[in-house]
Design brief:
The structure is a homodimer.
Chain A lengths: L3 H11 L17 H15 L4 E4 L5 E5 L9 E5 L13 H17 L7 E5 L13 H6 L5 H5 L9 H8 L14 E7 L4 H5 L3 E7 L1 E10 L3 E2 L11 H18 L6 E3 L3 E3 L6 E2 L2 E10 L2 H21 L3 E10 L2 E2 L2 H14 L3 E6 L4 H5 L5 E6 L15 H19 L2
Parallel strand pairs in A: 3-4, 3-5, 5-16, 6-15
Antiparallel strand pairs in A: 1-2, 2-4, 6-14, 6-16, 7-12, 7-13, 8-11, 9-12, 10-12
Bound molecules: N-(aminocarbonyl)-beta-alanine (2 copies).
Chain lengths: 407, 407
């Protein structure tokens, strides 16, 4: 069985790279901190005889050889990048859990039938470069390599430039190697398991999500002499839309509708200037694709209405749509069997967050393992999972991977 | 009579300093651009024999000597600083109108009984350093010199440091010289005169205004798995407050209630992170002080309600309150007489914007002259006033100043 203490030590060592004031991490994708995290991981993996390659979008494939090196490998992995004020577990656990599986096999001299791969996917968070999971999406054929490399961060730096400058621009063609299966361990990032007193989530799929860039174009004018009725206040229109979206999502008693406005920027903002232009991001999610369609239609109507109410032109661009995903029954079954064998309380559940497993599932049988996180909090410096849960999830990962690699 | 063409040339020459993409100006207070504007003005004034001094908060006093140099001077002036995307007239007209009065008297060799002063007040806009009119307020005793010098911009630079680095840190004690009277020429910055087809506003006072910094403290969390009902979305609370303020102000059929939220900042914003902290600025205005009190109370209740609705802690700090101002009857009368003598359509009116005249009126008899601006637009690059209206307002200024200086 895996070594929970060793796993915890690697988690805490990784957290020393890009620490934030309140105990979290800032390792935005392809920054020097992100690169330092990758190098630390590679040192650990080389020490146990693994080899590695980097593809053209920076995805890192770390290989532990199997008895039949010609067979497609069974893979695990996640991401090492974080939110601007992110936690120490989101993504990182999935990578370091994979490392712990490799170390455990190494200690015992176990050689699996199929090779194993530990994958670090580039820019999963979508915080530096939109959208999220862009590099696993490229691996799975959702985005072209050229498009991905030319995506820009807020400072205008392209993903390709960032890859070059942080030293992780590889040359392996994107899409290689093909995988026999993929298992991703992750914290739940929500409160369900903790509230139910369950230790593992057997993830059967992922809710659908859509990202929008909304622009409100009104007219800047003086806050003092401009009559309320003659204003074209872009922020007033944005606030109306945000409020309506909140009321709508909160009124869904099933709790399945999720709406978030994460970024709002006022052009040339000043206290005594009526905002003339506002940029807003909108994130819509639902577990049922048809409901997500309806949510988007409703959002578009409300957007138009908010603009009309305040004499403001509004336009939106859908920059990302990730449909509802159902994972592969045989991989779900492998995770469920491994969990049941450990005798812990668990549930089958959908993921509320997007994960690299979403895209990988298009090209390889996939499923995920969730463990609880404290107060359901993630994307927050206070994010926390217990050493016991981290170890438990990693044990499930180990057992599911071995079952598949040796089947 | 004054030379309208020469006045227009100086306005256009000043607009070459800190031009913006769409025909406006960016000369934030005490930046190199602001300093360059001041130096251009000083060159023009020295060429007609004026002398000048700078006080400890950077207010610039440019003197045209009178027959009785021991008598308190009659003054005019305004500001040369602009909004981030400001216009070519707001403040500038009041300064260059004063220059044109001086040039006109110089051409004819007219010496007034009292000396005249042209004043450039520091940081009127309040955009770089809050609050607005801070240096005329210091002149009038509303703020202490130390407080004013230690106010910081968004980058943490103090007003005192900015004065030093742009070369306008003077040593004249603040409050000198005492003025016999003050007349400020300004564009209306609203639509009233234009709509009524009137050419001059005889300004009888200024509406009250209050500025607030509001902080919403919720909890950042993941946009995907976090149930709507468990969120503490700081942006949702801010949007609710903004929307309620809009609805309230719009429902005042008198049109006297004015509410503006000019700046909104989300801490560590990211598309898929529920905003944990939001900073919002609120600007409340009314022509009746008691109504402004009521508006503030209402705002405070709505702020608390918005916080409660979304499980977000809210606090506010009132960083500025400028009470309703009534100008001096004799100065209003001087402006009205000068306007009537020119036979143009005019109205007596309150100002919706704050002006340096607000604070100067506490220590010297004061009034203002407004001219129309196109579509009532100000604090916008598109701000415009016709050469004819600029000349007309300057003529009224000249005549009112002469009447007072020679009375
Ligand atoms: N796991 C995670 O935080 N992924 C980011 C993609 C999303 O917004 O769900
Ligand atoms: N005139 C002007 O724009 N003043 C700024 C102060 C205010 O916000 O009214």
């Amino acid at each position: 069985s895996i070594d929970g203490q060793r796993l915890w030590s690697t988690l805490m060592a990784m957290a020393e790279i890009g620490p934030t004031a309140n105990g979290g991490n800032c390792r935005l994708a392809l920054t020097p901190e992100d690169a330092a995290g990758r190098r630390l991981l590679l040192d650990w993996c080389e020490a146990i005889g693994c080899t590695w390659r980097v593809d053209q979008v920076g995805n890192l494939f770390i290989r532990r050889e199997g008895r039949h090196s010609d067979l497609a490998p069974v893979a695990t992995g996640s991401h090492l990048d974080t939110q601007p004020k992110g936690g120490r577990f989101d993504g990182i656990l999935g990578v370091l859990g994979g490392l712990e599986v490799f170390r455990c096999l190494h200690d015992r001299g176990i050689v699996t039938e199929r090779p194993l791969e530990l994958v670090v996917w580039t820019n999963e968070e979508g915080s530096r470069f939109a959208p999220a999971m862009v590099a696993s999406g490229t691996y799975a054929g959702e985005f072209s390599v050229d498009d991905t490399l030319s995506r820009r961060d807020a400072d205008g730096v392209t993903l390709g430039e960032a890859l070059e400058s942080c030293g992780f621009a590889g040359d392996m063609p994107v899409g290689e190697p093909r995988l026999d299966g993929f298992f991703e361990l992750h914290i739940e990032q929500g409160p369900v398991l903790e509230e139910a007193g369950e230790s593992v989530g057997v993830v059967t799929g992922v809710q659908g999500m859509r990202w929008f860039d909304v622009t409100f174009s009104g007219q800047s004018a003086h806050a003092g002499p401009t009559p309320m009725r003659l204003r074209h206040d872009a922020l007033a229109a944005a606030a109306r839309l945000i409020d309506r979206l909140q009321v709508h999502a909160l009124s869904d008693t099933s709790g399945a509708t999720k709406v978030t406005c994460g970024c709002l920027d006022i052009t040339a903002a000043s206290r005594n200037v009526i905002p003339g232009e506002v940029h807003l991001t909108v994130d819509l999610r639902h577990v049922v694709e048809a409901e997500l369609d309806a949510l988007q239609s409703w959002f578009e109507c409300e957007m138009a209405a908010a603009g009309e109410a305040f004499g403001v032109a509004v336009s939106q661009q859908r920059i990302w749509a990730s449909p509802v995903v159902e994972f592969a029954p045989e991989c779900i079954a492998a995770v469920e069997a491994a969990t049941q064998a450990l005798g812990v309380r668990y549930r089958r559940m959908m993921s509320g967050a997007g994960h690299d497993a979403v895209y990988v599932s298009r090209v390889a049988p996939t499923s995920m393992i969730f463990i609880p996180c404290r107060d359901g909090i993630s994307h927050n410096e206070a994010e926390y999972a217990t050493p016991e849960h981290c170890a438990l999830g990693t044990q499930v990962l180990c057992d599911a991977m071995l079952a598949r690699a040796n089947r």
